[in-house]
# Entry
Amino acid sequence: MCAVPRGTAVAVVRPRLELAQIVRQYGDDYRRTHRLTPVQHRALRAIVACRTAALGGRRETCDHCGAVRITYNSCRNRHCPKCQTVAKERWLAARQADVLPIPYFHVVFTLPHALNALAQGNPRVLYTLLFRAVADTLLTFGRDPRHLGGTIGLTAMLHTWGQTLSQHVHLHCLVTGGSLAADRSRWLAGRSSFLFPVRALSTVFRAKYLAALERVFDANHLTFAEGTAALADRHAFSAYLGQLRATNWIVYVKRPFAGPEAVLRYLGRYIHRVALTNDRLVDHQDGHVRFRWKDYADQNRVKIMTLTADEFLRRFLLHVVPRGFMRTRHFGLLANRTRRATLTQCRTLLGQFPAEDAQPDSLGVLTYRLTGIDLARCPVCGEGRMQIVALVMAVRPPDTS
# Structure
């Protein structure tokens, strides 16, 4: 550990209410009364430890006034609201070269809430099926000569929450408004304001998902917990599938974006999101937590919701995904194995000058671009530069997922 000499000015930043404070106060009680998965335990521990002495850090000194600043390391857990901004910016910088000079559409596929309980017990299986069914549906429509007649590109991002932290499993998809011909000799442009018929998308998506769900049931790849135990019976599960087939599945398509910059701004809203950001928290007292939420059914008015700490943590933990599960995936023209060669061919056909691969920015550069704050400038005198003089040892090794 590093000792700070007596009488030395120390820069201390005191944040407003954070999720870590709520977990720190109520997390132990919640663990004692609920059964958590290992990845949920890991997420809570990481959120509490993030940017504290538990993870170590560095001691910096101003070369002008001698002020000392202790900066602690981040947990890097993808469910931590303090760790996603830099990850998002670096991801976006890497994706700039993927954006083509064409229209893009925003498509959202939502699972019926009747699947929520099954998804809680089988998140990896049901979320994987969602990616596959959505990608297969969109790629099938893209190849259809009645629509685009070629291979489209799409990026799909999994979200499992609504504004009130309730379970709302859906995929946000960014889809190219055109396709590459099968012989790779032509770019096939789509209509300027239309992608695919929504009702037909919904019908095909539902059929593909339920067929895949029945296959994993037959292969004994599903686990049935207390709330879904009755579905382990084959006849009960068949009736369950019948009820799901009888409901309308929601698919939403937005009009195309106005250029590559708008596409990147869109991605910035949805990439590396967590269920709840710190700036939405209002307060916590007497065993209750209050946070802001946007009511889309009431002209997007911002309202305050109050939940018991127990219910708040239960809802938050619904959205902790399995360890190693990829929440963002690419298909078609953007499939990872062939992306570089395919996009090069698309750019050639579209007459787009090849973009250079973006180099990752340092944390200081990213922070300055996002906030206008120069991390290297002394926060006490405003004139000197902060220099790293020692490392602060971690109390315990970081626990990330």
Notes: The longest strand covers residues 167-176. The chain has a mean pLDDT of 88.
